[in-house]
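Re: weekly structure request thread

Next one in the queue (190 aa):
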Amino acid sequence: MNTIIFTAHPSKAGFTHKIAKRYKDAKGKNAEIINLYDPEFQIDFLSFERESEIPQKASHNKAIATVQEKIRHADELVFVYPVWWGGMPAILKNFIDNVFVSGFAYDFDEQGKLHKLMKGKGIRIFMSGNSDSKYYLILKPFYHFLFGKVIFGFCGFSVLSIDILTSKFKRSEKELETFLQKVEKRAKSK
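Done, posted below.
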């Protein structure tokens, strides 16, 4: 199974990268980490005059074309990021806007019927945040809807799990390790 782990945190010393590394180590040699902050994978913000320009612009951008090719051959995508202002960092949202475009991740036929082009691929999401768990209890159903129906479900992905580490700064080393063990367990599950 080929796995791509996308991280979206500017600090390489952050817990986001510890989660990604633990997942990769548990998966083994068929897993790769892509840090969206690495210059090789940074993508300009989406801009266009007509929506029909989007797929052509994506195919002419080296970072987008490289990532799309990797995704084509992946069985599983993992997204690891901090929750900022209730959502994902802008760099990750921009990545999704530019990479999961019509003609690559989904398409419509002449009758307007949606074709999900990412069927058979799984998604795992790991988030961390400093807010109290009660806020995430409110947001978790929204995240399941957002990822499972609106973003990744729209393209045909199966959302396998969404895990949130809350109150990160208040956690002991033992609690952080417990979360990392959960990450490892997810990596070893089907």
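The longest strand covers residues 158-165. The chain has six helices and seven strands.
Next request, please.
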